Amino acid sequence: MTLLSIEGLTGGYGGADILHGVDLRVEPGEIVVIIGPNGAGKSTLMKAAFGLVKIKEGAVLFEKRDITPLRPDQIVRQGISYVPQERNVFPSMSVEENLEMGAFIRTDDIRPQMERIYSFFPRLAERRTQIAGSMSGGERQMLAMGRALMLDPKLLLLDEPTAGLSPLFIDQTFERIQKINAAGIGILMVEQNAKQALAVCDRGYVLTMGRNRIDDTGANLLANKDVAEMFLGG
Amino acid sequence: MVTELLQLAIYGVVLGSILTLGAIGVSLIYGILRFAHFAHGDLMALGAYFSLSLVAGLGFPVWASAPFAIVGAALAAIAIDQTVYRHLRKSPPIILLISSFGIAIALRSVIQLVWGPRNQVYASGIQIPWRFEGLVIKPDHVWIVLGAVVLVAALHLFLTRTKMGKAMRAMSDNMDLALVSGIPSERVIMVTWAVGGGLAAVAGIFLGMDTRLHPVMGWSVLLPVFAAAILGGIGRPYGAIAGGMVIGLAMEMSTVVIDPTYKPAVAFALMVIMLVVRPQGLFKGNA
């Protein structure tokens, strides 16, 4: 069963439409990447899946259920977690409290999931009591992902997870995304580092001016001349 | 001279305790709802009058009336939010600020209608003060300071140990992320009003114990309460504790050099100086 299916989506943030009839789908266990020039509507498309965009036409289906009219706090209960690009931690709260807030809607024991996340991100385990605002960009990105994973989602939405990170952290982040995916979690991400993102993804969507331009497997997109000229620096 | 200063310091700590309880509410509400709640002083007065009804009407001791006043003020705060502020959630902060001005005037009128415009007290007669080395301490002063300490400690435990308390901090920290994490904002907002209103009621009762009850009591203490919240860094409830103490002490100590009538002016001056020199407050606030 298709995990996420966006069909003919038109909408924006209330002013002029940013998306014009976009289609996208994510199958279970896939890594799907959205690339495109600035202003193409990449982040908007992903936010649309999370109820953060005013949708005029089209639909968003999650496991065949129509989630188009749902609010973010309702969508998160369906099994989708979202990591914003910026301001994605609670800065005055500790690492542990950040993870706890990620699991706010869970009423069962969250300790086992928290321990799983600590074993996945050992750096966070060392810093349980540290205040999130005092951590480095890379650590904060880990915490942001950890927070989103506290709900054990079926689909993880990542908005430019490597933005502003040093090359070393970028490599580590992509490795980690692959590891999260290996645990069976579908991933939809927007990325500026198109070359690396396409190398790790199953499929990619190229968006321009709020419309689908090309969609293909990651390998084919990497080999595609047009894509190379547009985004991969020749 | 030393005795006189110490005596004023005692009054300052008492006043500081009252201001702190009010300022914590102002700070919490600012942190979560992003507007300066100008009806907070009158909410304090409302709590004080709830208490008066039980004390004067039913013969309750003041301490026993406090829980009812806390619940009453908390419910009043939630009711005001649900009927007025809730419809303005997406409005700019200035609209909310002005409407809270309106609520303040409405509350004051209700108090005046129900309880009358004259001065009232919880207990008439003179309390026998304790005397140590020339210092005069009234039992009420001790209760006020102890009460404030206990409530601040309870609030601290609530904010750091409970899921709801942490959710309040999370919303104040990063509203958008709280939303996408599934934190139910409307429920957190209700709890915020309950906590802010409850603390305001106690602050009002303490103010009534320390001085007298009057329909304008809340309005006249609003300025020092805001000064305390701003000094501590508005949106930071812990800063409000320090802010309340500094303002309370400064107001009382200033009477050594200037006329006591100018006490509120001292609070105002400190607030203005703070806004000019360090607008983020002693501790970094959200403003």
What does this structure look like?
The complex is a heterodimer of chains A (234) and B (287). The model of chain A has no long low-confidence stretch (mean pLDDT 93). The termini of chain A are far apart. Chain A is of the alpha/beta class and 234 residues long. Chain A has helices at 42-48, 72-75, 95-102, 111-120, 122-126, 137-149, 167-182, 194-200, 218-223, 225-231; strands at residues 4-12, 19-26, 31-35, 54-62, 65-66, 80-83, 155-159, 186-190, 203-208, 211-217. In chain A, strand 9 and strand 10 (211-217) form a beta hairpin. Chain A is globular and about 45 Å long. Chain B has 287 residues and is an all-alpha fold. Chain B has one domain: ABC transporter involved in vitamin B12 uptake, BtuC, CATH 1.10.3470. Chain B has a two-stranded antiparallel ribbon. In chain B, strand 1 (130-132) and strand 2 form a beta hairpin. In chain B, helix 1 (2-33) runs antiparallel to helix 10 (237-253), helix 5 (139-161) crosses helix 6 (163-173) and helix 9 runs parallel beside helix 11. The chains are: A alpha/beta (234), B mainly alpha (287). The interface between A and B is medium-sized, with 23 and 17 residues.
CATH T-level fold name of the domain at 1-75 and 156-161 and 188-234 in chain A:
Rossmann fold
Poorly predicted parts of chain B = none
- CATH level-two architecture of chain B: Orthogonal Bundle
Our Rg estimate of chain B from Cα atoms comes to 18 Å
**How do the SSEs of chain A run, as a string of H and E?**
EEEHEEHEHHHHEHEHEEHH
In CATH, what is the class of chain B?
Mainly Alpha
Family (chain A): Belongs to the ABC transporter superfamily.
Keywords (chain A): Amino-acid transport, ATP-binding, Nucleotide-binding, Transport
Protein name (chain A): ABC transporter ATP-binding protein
Pfam family, one (chain A): ABC_tran
